[in-house]
Known about the structure:
By secondary structure, the protein is α/β, with parallel strands linked by helices. The protein is 40% helix and 14% strand. The protein has seven helices and six strands, in the order E-H-H-E-H-E-H-E-H-H-E-E-H. The mean pLDDT is 98. One 3-methylbut-3-enyl trihydrogen diphosphate (IPE) is lined by residues 29-34, 74, 78, 89, 200, 225.
Amino acid sequence: MRKPTPHPSGAKPPKLSKNLIPNHVAVVMDGNGRWAKQRGLPRTAGHEAGEAALFDLVEGAIEIGVKEISAFAFSTENWKRSPEEVKFLMGFNRDVIRRRLDDMHELGVRVRWAGRDRKLWKSVIDELERAEKLTVKNKVLTLNMCVNYGGQAELVDAMQKIADLIKSKKLSPDQITEKTILANLYEPKIQPVDLFIRSSGEQRTSNFLPWQSVYAEMVFMDVLWPDVTRKTLWKAIEEYNKRDRRFGKA
Length: 250
Ligand code: IPE
Ligand code: IPE
Ligand code: MG
């Protein structure tokens, strides 16, 4: 085990009591293409530059006490990009997981994959499953890598699984509750999202974790993903603390 390496600037997380720290933060890592374009570079250079941002954010999450991060790495809609970019992103995701695995394990991070297997490269699935197996007992933080993830696809897949249960008489329709839905999502152990953040200035969810985010606080930031650091996360957590979470209560 190792402790997170402090941020090179020496910055420390804001001191907040435990009940003010979001348990689960969902992260839409957006703006890589625009970051690259601003520099006259190919879009792929933006994706490459985004790798460090994610792992700095993970270290900052551990420092401040966040227990779960869901990172949107490739959506079910991203197949609509050029074949070259799709191919790059598949290989890149596989390589990032491979490259970072030992270090995540050292930090006590549990890695899980949430996504659809259909269409996803087998080499990517293999790498994700290897990471899940190696880190299964880690407890410092859970990192859900959302690769080939789409919220609508996840609900469709859950409904198919539930329909199969009904067909084989393991379940009757009147027994379906919110718990049944949750139990049939890609990661049934996933916690409700407390804080949902997105970089790049876009203010939409783009099909990320709809079931899990119904009561999430949304924080949209203008920074492009490759420029994100753990300090961006800490700032979002300070914004989160200005919100009044009522959950329907008066
Ligand atoms: C996010 O950056 C990475 C993925 C969606 C895989 P984008 O590639 O969407 O960057 P922009 O939005 O075009 O700037
Ligand atoms: C969301 O970003 C998906 C990921 C970050 C993986 P997109 O760039 O694909 O979203 P849209 O197309 O702007 O909604
Ligand atoms: Mg984008």
